[in-house]
Amino acid sequence: MAARPIYVEIDVQAEIEKVWSYTQQPQLHEQWDLRFSSIIYNDKLPGESVQTFTYATKVMPGVRVSGWGKSKGTHEKESGEKTSALHFGTDQLISPIAEGKGYWKYIPHEKGVTFLTQYDYDVRFGWAGKVADRLFRPLMGWGTALSFDVLKRWIESGESPKTQYRRFFSFYAICFLFSFVWFYQGLVPKVITRHPLEISMLTQLAPLTGAQAAEAIFWIGIAELVFAGFWLIPKLQKYLLQLQIAVFPLLTLSALVAAPSAAIAPFNVITLNITLWVLSIIGLLLHDQLPTAKSCKRKRGKTA
């Protein structure tokens, strides 16, 4: 079964010329498009209709994918609709994309512009590349949609892409941190070691024997491992932050009641829980201002 082309559509409340400028000027385009770190236009000869360019994408520190592109011209209808066709590719084997084609379309309407793209590409490495593309293609679609929302916010509110991406990645860094903390706290001191301090604190708070508390600690650890997994589900993250803001003060108080000496230990429960509580507040404040791929249509006539 052939892979479906990537399609992304978004409405922008702005004049078509402004949207055209933010998407066609390379120094502006490279700021909002997550797929590119730099875009450089080559000199075009007089009368030449094809604009060639080179691009680079920073995959990770020290690793970049460079490629070539051709903007194959624009077409403007009487209605004001514009289209820009694109041909692109790279010879670098690190890139799963070998060569592709697509277009951008700008459709003016009463409230602004519908900006959309559709593109497809060939993968390298034969069947292995096609298998890998089952994971890579959705990631490309998500990155395109997220970039379109960043562009929309930039044009409509004036907030720079750099600020938006800083907020976005800061938020998810906080979420991954919480996932790690709950995973570690559930696995190491509870499931693996059933630490004596954990058992002692529980027997101080509940009428349990040592053996019963040890068994309970194990299952509490399992619950914390599950809770750690919830942090990787975007739909739940806002509610988890709200839950932590309410619960961390209670957990801190319970720990101090069960083991007052813990308050003076190095890296103690007070400093840890207050740190996580403040990070929960920061994460919640960031959440409502995040750019999101959900604002885009990912299929014609349908919202993703």
TrEMBL record:
Q: Which InterPro entries match?
A: DoxX-like (IPR025695), START-like_dom_sf (IPR023393)
What Gene3D superfamilies would the database entry show?
A: 3.30.530.20
Domain of life of the native organism: Bacteria
Query: Which keywords, in A-to-Z order, does the entry hold?
Result: Membrane, Transmembrane, Transmembrane helix
Q: Which residues cross the membrane?
A: 169-187, 216-233, 245-264, 270-290
Name of the protein this chain belongs to: DoxX-like family protein
